[in-house]
Fold this protein.
Amino acid sequence: MLAIRRAQRRFGRRVIFADLDLDVPVGARLFLGGSNGSGKTTLLRCLSGTLTLSAGQATVGGHPVGSLPARRLTGVCLAPEQGLYEKLSARENLALIARLRLPRRAVGPAVATMEQELDLTGYATLPMERCSAGMRARVSIARSLVAGPALLLLDEPGRSLDDRARLLLWEALGRRPEMTCVIASHDADDRRRCDSAVTLAVAP
């Protein structure tokens, strides 16, 4: 599902990561570890298409990252408490993404499923600007899942979640065994729940 070949990203003269080779098969759960500044978030941004690689290549389902076909296959939650439309409700934020990727008749059921799975029903109609960081994190994760992505990219998904919400997240992932996940995290429990791990090191 995800293939990375001799990937490099730098900012000016500063190299974030280099010569990275990686294959993540369909349905795998990959834990992306490393200290702060090692390039975890930068790599996820490159895979999502919001940054370009400085060298090398990466594909999602055989499509170059950043291309429209790759973006359609990818669900992204890189800042769990951010990136939501503040004036829209949780339900409206989910529906907005669902309408872009799903047939019209599938939007309502997809949104309702995510509201139930991540227990959003108690505040589904509240504007995001009135929600706590934990609520917002749940909505961001639900938004990344609502269209049924083949590849899911998560950056510190449990940072603002309580124990119950973290369990709901992993239960939701467990219902989607065919979905490939790359999860950047410092959490040991996230590591235990993944099939394999890659640790990035801070470039010298």
